[in-house]
Structures are given as C-alpha cells and as structure tokens.
C-alpha cells in the first residue's frame, strides 16, 4: 500500500501546498487573525491544464459550519493511514499547527472556539468567486470544472425542487461533468431527465440496465483544455442499490466493474488522451485499492467518504484527491503535459472561508432566487441549542443524538435507529435551530419515521450488517457512511472481528438489562430502503421535539464501547 | 434454477425485517453455509477425482444488489474442437437447501462454453462451479456472494 514516503514524494512535488511548513501561508495569516482571498487563491501555476474539483456539497448553497470527525477508524491495510487520522494525528501527519485556519477546517477538536474565530465555510457565491478567479488567471480554455456527486441532495430547497436549484447553480458555475450517488434517490426518470438536458455531462461507467446490460449513462467524456486531451471517466457509488432504495431505480445495476474501468482507460488512451481522470464516488479506501489494480489512471478525484486532505495520496503513478464536503473546499490541480503524458502535478486544497472571500454577485442573486420560494420556511426558528450539534463520527454524533431523542420521545419507542449519514451541517452552542438546520440533516426522498417491533436478534443482525459495511477489511466491501446510531440501547463493538461477532453487550439503557435475543422491542427509525414505509417524515418528528424542549442540550454519549482499533 | 424455501424462522425474520425498515429484501445470515452438501453432490457426479484450478471464469457480484435475482456468468476457456471441448458445467450454492443450482452440457458445436443465469440467494454464501473437459480433466472455481440488509449509505 502507500507508504508515508510515497505520500511525501507526492506532496513534495506539490510545492504550492499549504502544508509542509508547520505554519504555512494560511497558518501565519491565521495566527494574525487575517485570511485573505489572495491567501486562499495563491498558487504557483504549472503547465497548461487546471482541474477544479468539488464534491459532496450536499446541496449546501449557503456558508455553514461543518465539523470534521474526531473518530474515523481505518481497518486492515489502511489502519492508521490518511484519511483515518483525526485531530492531533491528522495535524502531525499533514504538518498543520493547532489552532490554525487549516486545523479549524480539517480537524474537530477545539471546534467551537475556532468556529468563532474563523467563521462559516462554503457558500456557492464564494465558490463561484474562487472558480472565477482561477478561470481569469488561467483562461477559460485551460480550466475543467468537475463535481464528484452528492451535490443534488441534502437541503430543503433541493428536496422541494427535485434538485432543480442545484442544477441551475451548477450550470451557472459552468460545470463540465459530474457523477452521482444521492442524485439517484430522485428516481430514475428525474435523473435521466436532468442528465439528458443539462449543459454538463452526467457520467457513470458502472450503471447498466439490469436486463440487457446496456449503459444507462455516458461512461466517459473527452475534453480539450490547454492543448491537451483529457478523458474523464465517471464512477457512481457502486453500492447505491444496497445503500439506498433500489425501488427508486429498479432497472439499474451498479457494481465496481474494475475491468470496464480498465477498458475505458485503454480506449481513452487509444483515442489520444494525455490525461485520464476517474471522477469517482467509490469512497477513498475503495479508490486507493482500485488505483493499485487499474493501470493508466493519472488522477482519481475521490468523493463519498467526505474526506478532506491537504495533500495528494499517490499509488503507483496515480494521484488521489480528497476534496472534502459541504462546499468547504475547492481543489485545484495544475497539470503539466509533455509528450502526451502527465509530467507533473501541483495541488492545493483551497479552503472556502466565507468571511475572507468576496461573494460573486451574480451567484448571490441566483442563490437568493432559488431559495426565495422557501425563504420563510427556512428561516423559521424552532428552538435553540446549548450543545455543539454535529454529524460526523463512526459511532455517534450529537445531531444524531438529537434525532434519536426526538424519535424516542415523539414515537414512544424503546429503541431507535438513525442512519449513519455523513452529511448535515454543524450547529455551535447558542445557535438557533431553524427549519433549514433540521432539514439539512434530514432532507431525503424516503423520510418516513416508522414504528414497529423487532426482536433482539433482529437488532443485532442490523448492527452486524452495518458494521460489516464499514469495517470489512477489504475496501471493496465497504459501502461508506458510518455506524447506525442507536437510542435507548448501548452495545460493545470489536471492529477487528469478522461479521457476526463484532457486536456484544447489547443493553437496554433505561432498565440496564441485557437485550434478549427473543424478546420483542418497540423500535422506531427512519430512512428505510423499503417501499411504502409508513410514518411521519423525520423532519416533523425532530421539529416537534425541538419545539417542545425549546433549548436542546445533549448529554455525553457513552453507550457504545469500541475495541479492536 | 430458482431456489425455493427459506427456513421458517428466516421467513419470519424476512417479514419482520421488511417492516423494520433498515432491512432490504433479505435478512443477513451470519452464515453456516453447507460446504459438505455441495461436496456430497460433487462426489455423486465425479467420485473422488481431483479438481484443478484455472480455465473457469466465474463472474458473480461480490455483493448482491438484489438477492432474489443474482446474476451468475460462467465462461470456460477451451478451443471447443472435437478433440478438446468442455463437456459439462455445474453450478452449486453452498447456502441453498438444494445445493445444485444448474447444469449445462456443451458440444464442440456450441463454439464456446459460456452461460448466464440468475440465482436466488437468501444469505451470504459461496458459489462453486465445476467444469468437466472432454479429456476427463475437472476444474473448479469458487466465489463468495455477500447478501446484505443494506441501507444507511452515507
């Protein structure tokens, strides 16, 4: 696998990186409480081609807080390797000073204090400014803009407009191509309709009609930039049909289809491509494995697992880019081509500090326009929070605790299950909880909050199944996301064990008694992948609870005991 | 080819899981796949003959997207001439109540020895494929298919 030396070699070549100096340009600026747009954009240009890359924006049009995970465990060969490093380990690896702007944007500890210093990140009008500045510097004919998917889902406005808000915004950014995952939860017909009419390409080599094995989308597109031919191959989330409701796209089949990627690479080279890019929603560990098995990929633009890394990871001759999520970062890759081959690559993960970047007025106006029909709803204040509310973490997040508490209270359940989604904004203590904040963590097309009976055995089977999807030692069996969140029940997990023996010590928290295998419990949950799931939408359940408690306070969650790390 | 019947408790689990929400079509089986049953079937056909690896390309998904219709493709490397061809191919599923899934017979006139079908798999298990060549040699290949509850994808 990738040694630290490989990594350092890759980053050494990328001299424009903000890492490597302990206090890089941003670190110094941060120490003085000044980060400017010029600091963020500063880049020593290389060659004739620039790729700009965003992914997993989850339909976030406005600046927000998003806390990175403090628990993100790797298993097997990638244990202890990036992106499975957090806080001090992450900062040490990437040479980032504690308390710096980079530390704020990339790590979790001290988040509340740093959030007050550095403000919100992202916002499509700030992203538009960065993209516009790079295009102005390099020339439109040298710049390719790519989106790694999960850009149409995650907000009330995207849900209400069936992604039209994001399609309009991404079209205005002059996006060249994208790939998908959550996009498919708008249903096959809507996705095809957009893909067939949008001004950008919707690429996916690994989706086939399950009867005839015909491709559903264009697999690859060739672009001419800066005198070079760039092939972009799309790879949708291979596990979409098991991770999300298959009934929404019943005739599609996914999978990794490694051999077909190889064919695409070989065809692209034969057709004259100097640069071959995989625009991938595989997830980082899957892409790292794939990079060692598919030959001839120059760049893999990774997504899905929401990792943000201020350096390139190199596997053989392939570099991997992890650009983060929620619009917090825009990646810039300058590529020098010699003799129809990639000669050098320079990279920077540009942090989108919303207070430092002047909004692009045209994009501000467009964002306002698409939000206008929902503005009153979005701003509606339901309550406030005294606690930090965040999503990320392998086993729990405080926003998930809030959702679990809401289901326990509103659905009168003994045990509740909430999916380990990695999207949704972070609220800091003192923040208002608005309709927008609640729906940023819940806006999906299958939101029904069910209530029914499950035995202890069935609950264990669910936990084992989800755990195997995260902690299987072979990345090709990892589907992304985090552990299902539990309310009303504690358990122990040994992540090093095989499926079926990771979970133990399941305890009913209220009574302190062990969960009995054959006993039946009243269980509530949401985001069922089964058709016709009954129950109120989860956002109504959460809003009702928040309105009742008025001020949310989340107690520390010690219900999950983790070993085998 | 479609395999029937899941034991009763599985069926109940399925019904529960279907309502329970996080679950998809099939409950996971933390599997006690019946390797012996497959071995017994093979012994009935070929006694104690030895199997070689190679020649067989057994293409099954590593994770089933729909356990009710799991695609299986087999492709046996052979010139398919009168002197050297694939006589028969058998596919077994270790986790099924009746392990023999399908058998194909070929002649040189087939041109190539490849076939596709779909299996119903109730749980994670190994799929075994054996090929009998015209010279009497036997080949074997094995692949695991994971059947998952699914959901929760981030």
Structure description:
The complex is a heterodimer of chains A (565) and B (154). Chain A has 565 residues and is of the alpha/beta class. Chain A has two domains: 46-63 and 121-356, 4-Layer Sandwich (Purple Acid Phosphatase, chain A, domain 2); 377-563, 5'-nucleotidase,  domain 2. In chain A, 30% of the residues lie in helices and 22% in strands. Chain A has 19 helices and 25 strands. In chain A, helix 16 packs across helix 19 (538-549). The longest helix of chain A is centred in the C-terminal third of the chain and has 16 residues, at 456-471. Residues 1-25 of chain A have low confidence and may be disordered. Chain B is α+β, with helices and mostly antiparallel strands and 154 residues long. Chain B has one domain: Immunoglobulin-like. Chain B is built from two helices and seven strands, in the order H-H-E-E-E-E-E-E-E. Chain B has helices spanning 8-20, 35-46; strands at 56-59, 70-76, 86-93, 100-105, 113-119, 125-133, 138-145. Chain B has a four-stranded antiparallel β-sheet, covered by helices on one side. Chain B has a three-stranded antiparallel β-sheet with strand order 1-2-5, with no helix packed on it. In chain B, a hairpin with a 6-residue loop joins strand 3 and strand 4 (100-105). The N and C termini of chain B lie far apart (35 Å).
Topology:
The complex is a heterodimer of chains A (565) and B (154).
Chain A: H1 4-13, H2 25-31, H3 37-41, E1 49-54, H4 87-94, H5 101-106, H6 111-118, H7 124-138, E2 143-147, H8 156-160, H9 164-172, E3 177-178, H10 188-197, E4 201-202, E5 208-209, E6 220-225, E7 228-235, H11 240-243, E8 252-253, H12 258-270, E9 275-280, H13 284-291, E10 299-302, E11 313-315, E12 318-322, E13 329-338, E14 341-351, H14 361-371, H15 375-379, E15 381-385, H16 398-410, E16 415-420, E17 432-434, H17 435-440, E18 450-455, H18 456-471, E19 482-487, E20 489-494, E21 503-508, E22 513-514, E23 520-525, H19 538-549, E24 551-552, E25 560-563
Helix pairs in contact in A: 7-14, 9-14, 16-19
Chain B: H1 8-20, H2 35-46, E1 56-59, E2 70-76, E3 86-93, E4 100-105, E5 113-119, E6 125-133, E7 138-145
Antiparallel strand pairs in B: 1-2, 2-5, 3-4, 3-6, 6-7
